[in-house]
Amino acid sequence: MKSSRFRRRAGWLLIGLSLLLHLFTLYAYSRQPDELAAFTVIPIWAWGGVGLIFSIVAFWFLRAPLSLVVTGVWAMTILLGADEARVIANVGKSAPLPGPAGMAEGRRLLRVLTLNCNYFNYSGGSDPAADIRRWAPDVVLLQEALPQQVRHVADLLYQGEGDYRLYATNGIVTRWSIRREVNPQPGGLRVQQVTIRKPDGSEFEVVNLHLSSAATDLRLWRSDCWKTHRANRQVRLKELGIALSILTDTAPGKPVILGGDFNAPPSDPTHGLLKADFDDAFSSAGTGWGNTYQRRIPIHRIDQIHHSRHFKTIHCAAVTTRRSDHRMVVADLLPAP
User: Fold this and answer.
1) pLDDT of 52-89, one tens digit each?
2) Mean pLDDT, the chain, integer
3) Exposure string over 105-143, b if 16+ CB within 10 A, otherwise e
């Protein structure tokens, strides 16, 4: 009798906790208030997993249909809210293949690759240039790279016939010529912008970003953890805002490719600054597991490629390299005719 009473109370308590967590999660991820940045930096499917455990254990205690309903609600929330599930909409899309990007709709594709190189220091020191060359990119965005490392990538890819620029710890490498370089004035801002000219005379802007490193404190029971994540998000919002302001002032209306290490997942409000004018290449045509950090067990898609509406994404994927703690992102873009 006592055991039966305990099971009922425990079951209803778990259902209540699961529902409360669900309501809080919906509010946090739909509204994304800065005050809850410490909560939303964790993938929604992680909180969904906790809620599912509560509801499943509650069903084991109660055998009540409400437990199954709550379980179903959590499953739908994860399916609709998780960035990782959005590739389901890209059924039928194909991943980029090693080698040149090829053609689509009778026009040559433009292949862009972005990689945080970790200063070639991952696993005791290793060179990712050979892994990059395997994809024959037209434009490469590098973060956490030293000047000699950027030059090395350019030389290996294009044997002296390409072009490259350095700024802070960022590097842009291309098989074509760089006509102009625009660098921000504020010190410490890891934002790089260049104008690339193709052999046919057409030009496009490239912006290489490495926004401030993410806060990693997950001690949610401490108030300073919440304050740290809030301030960290606001710094990245400011940095991206500056980069977009410079772009608007220096290249209004031009085709733009913008990518790099955002140190924030796609659900973060930082990316809201891009939605009006840019498309996320992986959301548009990505296939497979798109998360890029940490390489071994990637749980966040912080390395991304975006582009203005002058391009259309044909292929996109995150590609593993053993030479960095990040995965590379490779995107094939079709320029407008």
Assistant:
1) 999 999 888 887 788 889 999 999 999 999 999 989 88
2) 94
3) eeeebbbbbbbbbbebebeeebebbebbeebebbbbbbb
Q: Residue 18 burial (CB < 10 Å; 0-12/13-18/19+)?
A: buried
Contact 80, 303 (CB under 8 A): no
User: The whole model's pTM is what?
Assistant: 0.95
Q: Is 101 exposed, middle or buried (0-12, 13-18, 19+ CB in 10 A)?
A: buried
Q: What is the DSSP pairing of strand 328-335 with strand 311-319?
A: antiparallel
Q: 218 - beta bridge partners?
A: none
Number of neighbours of residue 145 by Cβ within 10 angstroms: 27
pLDDT of residue 66: 84
User: Cβ-count burial of 65 within 10 angstroms (0-12 exposed, 13-18 middle, 19+ buried)?
Assistant: exposed
List 301's β-bridge partners, or say none: none
Q: Kindly give, in sequence order, each residue whose CB lies less than 8 Å from that of residue 182, ignoring residues fewer than 6 positions away.
A: 193, 194, 195, 246, 250, 251
Question: CA triplet 136, 142, 146: central angle to 5 degrees?
Answer: 120
Which helix (H) or strand (E) covers residue 313, if one does?
A: strand 311-319
What count of other Cβ atoms lies within 10 Å of the Cβ of residue 74? 26
The structural domains of the chain, ordered by start, are: 2-81 (no CATH), 97-335 (3.60.10.10)
- Which segments of the chain have a pLDDT < 50? none
Instruction: Please tell me what DSSP assigns to residue 238.
Output: H
Amino acid, res. 108? R
Report CA dihedral (166, 171, 177, 181) to the nearest 10 degrees. Answer: -50
Structure tokens at 89: 């909409």
pLDDT tens-digit map of 179-191: 999 988 767 799 9
